[in-house]
TrEMBL record:
Residues 1-23 form the signal peptide. The keyword Isomerase does not apply. Residues 185-211 are annotated as: Disordered. The keyword Ribosomal protein does not apply. Keywords: Coiled coil, Signal. This is M23ase beta-sheet core domain-containing protein. It comes from the Bacteria. It comes from Candidatus Yanofskybacteria bacterium RIFCSPHIGHO2_02_FULL_46_19. Residues 23-78 form a coiled coil. CDD domains: M23_peptidase. InterPro entries: Cell_wall_metabolism_enzyme, Dup_hybrid_motif, M23ase_b-sheet_dom.
Amino acid sequence: MKKFLFLFLLSAFYFLLSTSARAQTDVDRVADLKRQIEELEKQAETYRNSIAQQQAEATSLKQEIGAIEAQIKNIQLQVKLTGIKIDKTKLEVGNVEKDIYDAQQKITAQQKGISQLIAFLNRQDNESLLSIVLKNENLSDFFKQAENSKDISKKLTELINDLKTQKQTLENQKNELEDKQQELENLNQQRSSQKSALGGTKTSKNQLLAQTKGQEAQYQKLLRDVEERKTKFFIELQKYESDIVAGGVYIVHVTAGKLPPRGTNLFRWPEEGYRITQGYGMTRYARRGAYGGAPHNGIDMASGYGSLIRAIGDGEIIANGANSGWGNWIAVKHPPINLVSVYGHMSALSPLKVGTQVKAGDIIGYEGATGNATGSHLHLSLYKDFFTYMKGTELYFNYFDGSVNPDDYM
């Protein structure tokens, strides 16, 4: 019996030793990828700050082309960064799969050992005291056998407890695997969005050069035309919205309950590594008449084309659409107060359907530059009174009335 215990423990030792050696190699590889990611993220932050400054200062064709070229370099960096994150996550998925296999093997070995120990103890229990005494040559051997049985019972208890721990570990590893596989899927979607953005940004540069023929005068005329169209768009939109309110022709209408004091932390920010490019209210840009004389109805932030956009809080998707102003957008209602958050200019329509329940931090889209946008950014609005309506074939939501400053509840 001692020989059995020795072999059992020896095999377990080598099993753990081989697992540890394999795991250490993978840990080193993951650590190396993490270092690469950290370096690229620092570069990406530098690019983001540079792009924001260039966009703010771009008053000439040369400056605008420079800003677009900086965006192209940034997106190329983002594609590379996401690729390394994919490699790291694939390695982590493989590691978790190996850990699951190792845990299953260990559980099988433990179950076998437990069965053998139980069988041995059963045989001991079935022997009469007289037969045990007669089987041993002297009283000392008898007491040694009794002590061995006690040790085996103790070992059995340890194995059973360890088996329970291993089963819980296995369950945790399976949950971790699901999370890693979801993360991998999200990263693949993000890289696809970034590659699409790269092509789109290069096209924008070529179109700008074609429209202006490389001439500064043509560029300035183009800027004036864009500003005029934007102002006209918002003036017409506000008039149309007034008619909708007068007629009460809403598709969705949500009114929040009593709001907590400003400064109450209700939500998280929807992006990581973001830079605020325009605040809420009568900003300098709004005072120039950019929104038809109305204030800015949210916060603009930039984290890089294709960056993940996450729900700021738990809630339900209540609208998902696109229009000329906000491009691709989605709205989330947040119980119990029922404030509504809106995310605009996304690179593509969100795949989430109306009625989908989301948790704070769930991915709902990717940063883009669709609609009436100058450069890639996310527009975030927050409403205490929110409604949607159709304007032609496009889905809109109320502009400023009913909105609150998102920063008041972050």
